[in-house]
Amino acid sequence: MNYQFTSNLQQAQQLDQEDPLAKIRDHFYIQPGQIYMDGNSLGLASKEAETALLKMMNIWKTQGINMWDEYFHYGLELGAQCATLINARANEVLITGSTTSNVHQCISTLYQPTAERYKILVDDLNFPTDRYAIDSEIRLRGYNPEEAVKVIPSPDGKYIDEDAVIAGMSDDVALILLPTVLYRSAQVLDMERLTKAAHERGIIIGWDLCHAIGAITMDFQKIQPDFAIWCTYKYLAAGPGSIAGMYLNQKHFDKQPGLAGWWGNRDDTQFQLKQNFEHQKDVSGWQIGTPSMLSMAPLEGTLKLINSIGMEAIRTKSLKITAYLMYLIDEKLTQYGCKVGNPREDSKRGGHVCLEHPQGYQISLALKDRNVIPDFREPDVIRLAPIALYTSYEEVYQMVDILEDILKTKSYEKYSAKRGLVV
């Protein structure tokens, strides 16, 4: 979309006045004087999340074990609310586990290697936890990851080449796992194209939605992937380490879960406590242990808020405010060696902007001392995420002003380039 921006404060203020989501900001705990640009790593706390957590605490206090009468299917119920964000069927989405444990669950279920077809195809840029899990699953099946994991290299270290991925879908590939939005460069992959190509070749394909869900629109009933996994603490703002999500296409419900646990047993026989596992024939059959209610409750609050707004409106604001940020970077910061390191096309850009600079790490430290919260990714990327639900255009303008001052004065030079524990 062609936006008409100018580099003055008055336009930023005007954009906020015209923003249909401006009042949603009041639902979140914004710290005075702070510009928060790290919602793609950990979303801010909302009043809805707090209310839902306190409600769950009160239920625990007053009902004890009787709370299970109402919340026994909580993971599936929250999954149904999450399903609307990706247009999946309600019984295909589950809130459970962690991103990594859900990768293990899906791979262990759907990866069925044969002598002819035993490889798992991945890219070399995805967040490494997915690769760690895949390598583990490969070893558990008696294969060597160096031979059985097929890595499609990036041509430039920033973007995944979709044509190369399709070319790599050879007859020996059994399964594929790719990111929908690449965490480093915000590249959005064409899920429909790649899923179709995989299925035409008889290959199982899954998607990591960690940087996509709550940030971009998706249509799983149209795309029909085999599985997907995601965390809920980024754009869904469900809290640090909150319970993750999993999608399993209904065509796989008859398969035996790779990692069985008692919470995935059939409802009607679960408390008969038999020694033989009888799994529930929907996505809830892939639960393992007892759900963590206190960790799940905040998600209920944020999902209600997000669904009341709708992903179309959220994506529209996200595209506009990230385009505004890129415009200001071009206008004010390129003269200092900065450049935009993410796709500029709306259809190919996720929810954050990648500001590249050779001294990116030191600049990120300087920003934090000026009460701007970004994050940094190797080798030179400052990730800036103006979240549609709670970031204002004026905050984006102010942040770029602060960045310009840091760059102009070279105040970042006083900071060490040695990495901290959490970069």
From TrEMBL:
Q: Which GO terms describe its biological process?
A: anthranilate metabolic process; L-kynurenine catabolic process; L-tryptophan catabolic process to kynurenine; NAD+ biosynthetic process; quinolinate biosynthetic process
| Keyword Hydrolase among record annotations | yes
UniProt keyword list: Hydrolase, Pyridine nucleotide biosynthesis, Pyridoxal phosphate
Extract the PANTHER family matched here. KYNURENINASE
Signal peptide segment = none
Query: Where is the organism placed in the taxonomic lineage, from the top?
Result: Bacteria, Bacillati, Bacillota, Bacilli, Lactobacillales
Q: Where does pyridoxal 5'-phosphate bind?
A: 99-100, 127-130, 208, 211, 233, 262, 290
Which reactions are catalysed by this chain?
3-hydroxy-L-kynurenine + H2O = 3-hydroxyanthranilate + L-alanine + H(+); L-kynurenine + H2O = anthranilate + L-alanine + H(+)
Q: Which cofactor does it need?
A: pyridoxal 5'-phosphate
State the species of origin. Bombilactobacillus mellis
The terms under GO molecular function for this entry are: kynureninase activity; pyridoxal phosphate binding
Family statement drawn from the similarity comment of this UniProt entry: Belongs to the kynureninase family.
Enzyme class of the recorded protein, top EC level: hydrolase
Q: Which Pfam families match?
A: KYNU_C (PF22580)
The subunit structure is: Homodimer.
Query: Annotated pathway, please?
Result: Amino-acid degradation; L-kynurenine degradation; L-alanine and anthranilate from L-kynurenine: step 1/1; Cofactor biosynthesis; NAD(+) biosynthesis; quinolinate from L-kynurenine: step 2/3
* Protein name from the UniProt record: Kynureninase
**Main role?**
Catalyzes the cleavage of L-kynurenine (L-Kyn) and L-3-hydroxykynurenine (L-3OHKyn) into anthranilic acid (AA) and 3-hydroxyanthranilic acid (3-OHAA), respectively.
